[in-house]
Amino acid sequence: MGLKGKRIAVIGENRYEWGISYLAVTCGTGIVVPLDKALPENEIQNLVERSGVEAICYSGKYDGIMKKLKENGVRKIKKLNIYGSRYS
Predict the structure, then answer these.
(1) Which residues is 48 bridged to in the sheet?
(2) Are 29 and 4 in contact (CB under 8 A)?
(3) What is the DSSP track for 26-79?
(4) How many CB atoms lie within 10 A of CB 83?
(5) What is the side-by-side strand order in the sheet with 55-58?
(6) Which CATH number covers residue 31?
(7) pTM for this entry
């Protein structure tokens, strides 16, 4: 998928899938950027842009926000993943 050594964000509620996503990134893929689930949408976008994130793993609750990020010109994001689905 071309994400070796890249920054990958993880955001979601405390749940099994969050832990698996976090550990998968830290144990071999790249650099994890954990995002606080309580942040407002503009702060999430700011952190994603400033950190240079190229992929995001998130729960369905954040689907609308993540799609807006991609539409709003956060061009560096190549992959979005909702827990339990394939990368889009």
Answers:
(1) none
(2) yes
(3) IIII-EEEE--TTS-HHHHHHHHHHHT--EEEE-GGGHHHHHHHHHTT-TT--E
(4) 19
(5) 31-34, 7-11, 55-58, 79-82
(6) 3.40.50.980
(7) 0.83
Tokens of 9: 């964000």
- At residue 88 the predicted structure's pLDDT band, cuts being 50, 70 and 90, is very low
What is the total count of domains within the chain?
1
Enter the tokens of residue 14: 């405390």
Determine the Cα–Cα distance for residues 88 and 82; give it in Å rounded to an integer: 9
Task: Tokens for 25, please give them.
Answer: 């990134």
* Residue numbers of the domain that contains 65: 7-82
